[in-house]
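Please check this one:

***
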Amino acid sequence: MPAPVTLDGRSLSIQDVVAVARHGASVSIAPRALDAVRASRRTVEAAIAGGATIYGVTTGFGKLAHVRIPPASCSSTLSAAMRPGWAILCPRRPCER
C-alpha cells in the first residue's frame, strides 16, 4: 500500500495524485489546511449574508450572470453548477489497473 497523502495546501505533487488515483493511497487534510478552508468559507458566507454580488456564487454563470440567486440557495446552486464542469474537465477514463 502506498504512503498516505496529506493535503496541506502547499506540497501536493503529481506523484501524490498518481498514488491516490492509481494506487489507492489514503488522503487526509492537514489541520492547518482545514482551518484555512473553514476561514475561507466564513469569509464567503459573510459576503453572502451582507448581500455581496459574487459571480457564480450569488449570481448565475455566463448568460445568467445577471440573475441573482437567493442566499439560501447559493451553496446548492454552486454545487449543482460545478458538477457538469467536473465532467468536462475530468472525463471518465478506463481503469488502468
